[in-house]
Write a structure and sequence with these properties.
0% helix; 11 strands; mainly beta; 7-stranded mixed beta sheet; 56% strand; 117 residues; 4-stranded antiparallel beta sheet; globular
Length: 117
């Protein structure tokens, strides 16, 4: 069983920055890939960024050059640095983590990011 705890959401003006963090904990935690999804009411959940255990990353086109995903394997923690935020980035952001031994994707509780002046 893995628990994911997110932090770092909030309200920011357009052009501003936020950093999200997601810490994984639990018994015998061995994490493979990690990532971030976001969801706006009435729309499907969208994969924003993902990172493998080896550090390979991929991003949805709309955030390339603005968002950076990273992870600290020793702490089982991932981060999403969001720069040059736009109103259309407003959403609930969810972190995910895929366990290694028995592949399963766990979800965080979600954190609200609001970009507004």
């Amino acid at each position: 069983q893995v628990q994911l705890v997110e932090s770092g959401g909030g309200l920011v003006q357009p052009g501003g920055s936020l950093r999200l963090a997601c810490a994984a904990s639990g018994s015998d935690v061995s994490i493979n890939a990690m990532g971030w999804y976001r969801q706006v009411p009435g729309k499907e959940r969208e994969l924003v960024a993902a990172i493998t255990s080896g550090g390979r990353t991929n991003y949805v086109d709309s955030v390339k050059g603005r968002f950076t995903i990273s992870r600290d394997n020793a702490k089982n923690t991932e981060y999403l640095q969001m720069n040059s935020l736009k109103p259309e980035d407003t959403a609930v952001y969810y972190c995910i983590a895929e366990t290694r031994v028995v592949p399963y994707i766990y979800w965080g509780q979600g954190t609200q990011v609001t970009v507004s002046s």
